[in-house]
User: Fold this.
Amino acid sequence: MKHLHMTIALISVLLFTLRFVWLLKDSPKLQQKWVKILPHIVDTLLLALGVAMAIKLAISPFEQYWFAEKLLAVLAYIFTGVYTLKLAKNKTMQIIGYLGAIGWVMLIVRLAITKTPLFLG
Ligand code: HEM
Assistant:
C-alpha cells in the first residue's frame, strides 16, 4: 500500500511537471482530453490511499503533528498547483508558482520520511 502511494505520488508530480512544461511552451498538447482527466484521477487515488493508510495505521493529525503538517503542505501543494496551471498570468508567475509547488512537495516527502514536524508541535 505504501509503495503504491509513493508511486502514485511520483506520477502526480511528473504529470504536474509535464503540464507545466507544456504550459510554458504554449503547447496544444495541454488541450488533450486525457491531460484534463488523468491528473484528477491520480490525485484522488493518492488522497484515498493516504487516508486509507492513515486509518489502518491509526495516524491522526490531532495526535501526530507531522501528519497535520503534511496535510497542510498537501493543501498548499494543491493551491500552488492550481495557481501555476490556471491563475498565473504570465510565464514568470507560472515559474514562481511551479517552484513554490515543488518546495511544498519537498516538505511533504521530508515529513513523510522523518515523521518529525518542522513548524508544528
Ligand atoms: C504530494 C503528495 C504526497 C507525497 C509526495 C507523499 C509521499 C509519501 C512518502 C514518500 C511516504 C513514505 C514515507 C516512508 O518512507 O515511510 C508516504 C507515506 C504516507 N503518506 Fe503520503 N504523500 C503524499 C500525500 C499524502 C496524503 C494526501 C495523505 C493522507 C491524506 C498521505 C498519507 C500518508 C501516510 C498515512 C503514510 C504512511 C506513514 C507511515 O508509514 O507511518 N500522503 N507518503
